[in-house]
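Record format v2
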Amino acid sequence: MVTTMAKRTAITPTRAENYPEWYQEVVKAADMAEHSQVRGCMVIKPWGYGIWERIQYELDRKFKETGHQNAYFPIFIPLSFLEKEAEHVEGFAKECAVVTHHRLEKGKDGKLVPGGKLEEPLVVRPTSEMIIGDTFSRWVSSYRDLPLLINQWANVVRWEMRTRLFLRTTEFLWQEGHTVHATSEEAMEEAKKMLGVYVAFCEDYLAMPVIPGRKTKDERFPGAVETFTFEAMMQDKKALQAGTSHFLGQNFSKSCDIKFQTKEGSLEYGWTTSWGATTRLIGGMIMAHSDDDGLVLPPRIAHKHIVIIPIIHDESLRCDVLAFAEKLKADLQKELFHEMPIQVVLDDRDMRAGEKSWSWVKKGMPIRIEIGAREMNEGKVTMMRRDKGPKEKEFFVAEDFVQKASEILQNIQDKIYKKAKNFLKENTHELNDEKEFYDFFSKKDGESGFASVFYNEEAGVHEKIQKELGVTARCIPNDGKESEGKCIFSGKPSKKRVIFAKAY
Amino acid sequence: MVTTMAKRTAITPTRAENYPEWYQEVVKAADMAEHSQVRGCMVIKPWGYGIWERIQYELDRKFKETGHQNAYFPIFIPLSFLEKEAEHVEGFAKECAVVTHHRLEKGKDGKLVPGGKLEEPLVVRPTSEMIIGDTFSRWVSSYRDLPLLINQWANVVRWEMRTRLFLRTTEFLWQEGHTVHATSEEAMEEAKKMLGVYVAFCEDYLAMPVIPGRKTKDERFPGAVETFTFEAMMQDKKALQAGTSHFLGQNFSKSCDIKFQTKEGSLEYGWTTSWGATTRLIGGMIMAHSDDDGLVLPPRIAHKHIVIIPIIHDESLRCDVLAFAEKLKADLQKELFHEMPIQVVLDDRDMRAGEKSWSWVKKGMPIRIEIGAREMNEGKVTMMRRDKGPKEKEFFVAEDFVQKASEILQNIQDKIYKKAKNFLKENTHELNDEKEFYDFFSKKDGESGFASVFYNEEAGVHEKIQKELGVTARCIPNDGKESEGKCIFSGKPSKKRVIFAKAY
């Protein structure tokens, strides 16, 4: 007799059953974040915040290596500042948190109400071009002050109606770079350079392959001349814009009056850029790699690499097993993974070993080590890797494992990346006419992917596609081979293929 | 003939001439921060923000070593949450920025006005007890969840009418620790432990001696059972509260409903603490150490330790001198100061050497090195220390200087600390009656200091002193010898001496 049993998974529903709900459950099971009682705002819990700290550390290092300095600017932007750049304010007006009062006072019924009305409302920054631009107008006066290369780590607020942990929240954390240059070429080079920094970070640390490119004009940042983007593919084959870098031309320097005296003595407007990446990167990483047992954490972005789980059946051996585990932990922590000490957790909670092990599977811990009396006596360890089946075990002499730990972590990293890379490749298709395009995107959720098509940005086309299919132009890839074709929508000549997809 | 010349200083006015204005000028000359166009909010410039990054790095490390984890909570607090704790809301109501709308829309005259009125106003966090408490009420259910040890790095907003860079601004940066414990004793121990962390940090890194103790009841944090504080003395002999740690008893766990099941099965309210330190620390450090030539930066908190200034009189030697300077920089950066690489700037700006040197004096750079053709030929360096006169030079064989750099930096650190320590000691006086107290605090600004007096917190006394002298009870020192005395105001028996002072 044969019984077919559904494989039990730690996360319900599975990706195949309900992808959006699976995502929420992964975040919850890994204890990364939760919705707060404040509409649209999340609480980032320690396991999630630790990943943000890793992202901050690595990006910050790269920003400093490329000559940028950190600074901090006010969270509030006077309404009149926002209005200086018409497209910009238009882009953000619908999602601004507005401060109108500066105290609380007793109302008629004795309850507290807003008091002390401000002469001018203040907007909680949705992005800081206008307040930083105003400041830069005083910092820049000569070509000697350029380039001005500044970055800020901050919280921003964009009032969102439908929110999703990490991916879209009213308040989120980010960094925003803001730079001023003496020439258009230099500013363009900066915007591209920072795109490169982001792309390398995504691929090397988050193990998330991306397609770098630029946005079509409908999808540019409000006020930008050119927006560079890098798009990742989630496991439901939708796109996720992981960050952007903008060449702002002289638009913002004109609205903010950022002028400098050239070497030759003339007065010119500066050329500016801005670029940002947010806590959304965490959401993208979760959706790109995790499986039906929970989070899969690429070792290079993990804040903890290895958990040691002592298995104690015989209480009289507790002290010895724990001592063996402690020594292993100490030895491992002396080893380096990419020049940083390997981070080890010894989990001696009072809990069943199976339950304990599953809790770390769900948290995405790259390596689990089990140590019982037998391992101790034989000087061995039992190892499980998060990129393999949850019950697939490997055995090592303890000293050997310590020696190999860093290599194994890198191997996990490589495998996670390769898997995502293949997935992106397999699900990106060159399509050649409008019907094929419509058929492609009329498939069920999770069955389409990225479509690469000739497109010449004819007016009205993008709006129509977006309305009818829920699909948007994601980017004009940097590596797009320049070839002659015809726009699949207008039939007119087009020189570029553009990636379209449903997106987060 | 003798001409008396006033010694020229880099900062005008001097401390003696006008202390508050001197402070503003030091901040400006060091390029640390400036007022923004947003009322009460400052811009922290790279030289100032670098110090905040050092503070963050060192405190964060200490918090993690003591078992705390970082997390992030919403910036907005619903009005109804604040109201749950009567004393707390009373304490902050007058200085709250209130968000009342969630978009901008066109008004009658076509201008943008706040739109989308919120059902419930949101307060921009002045501190996060209520929003974190609400979250903790869901995180804590059993004694197994305790202690819960969380820290947050964030911006907060307290609407201030009179602001001063770093010392008092509407928006400031800080960290706030929030913990829950199973017993009163444990929570009290935590509050004291974190006071200890702050005190050690202030003394060891900021070179700022402080008097740790607890606040009298009039000066406690709104809602706290006990507030621990550490008070530093500025060069005008006024006090600066550098940070606080609060034992909150069960006040906040009751308002926020943080309950847990004990080992024995009963349901109890948790015992909570909170503790915070802010960008104000930077203001305190500036006022404690700087002189009439500008900022004096203790090396352990400096983000740059040494500047190398090449002096080039003969253009044909430029390349050789710069190569010598580059090599020195590389050698120095291989050396460690407190386990971290020494940070070196090579200043090759096109500027007169004298002007260049003064710019670093004003920025507080601990060590300046000058290298000219002679130094290069002899393999030597000319060194100036920021804790000595600006023209006091010392000469070293280059290799010797590299070897000794770390030791010299520590020596500068020690001297700055010792000077401040003596100043605090010399200006703290035990006074024994009310008249002496009034005479002491009726002196001109900058001539009084700290007064240590017997005081029994009789109702009305503190208010009277504050009104008549502008003096407040700063703290009941931890090391106060328990002795019998009489309150100098009420004449009634008192067991404790209390420090009074004018304060920032």
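Chain A is about 35% helix and 30% strand.
The longest strand of chain A covers residues 112-124.
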